[in-house]
Amino acid sequence: MADASSCKITLHAGAAKPFKSGDTFVCEPGLQGTWEVASPLRKAFVVRGI
User: Which of 4, 9, 17, 32 is the most buried (most CB within 10 A)?
Assistant: First the structure.
């Protein structure tokens, strides 16, 4: 069975980017937008001091 986990991040400026299992991304400080989960997914966070 394939993992169909997916989400979409839409910035307040209007740009939307879809993500699926195995994708990675960085949220820069001050990011404003929405995170829409289309199907259940597992998230891992790394928080670094600035």
Answer: 9
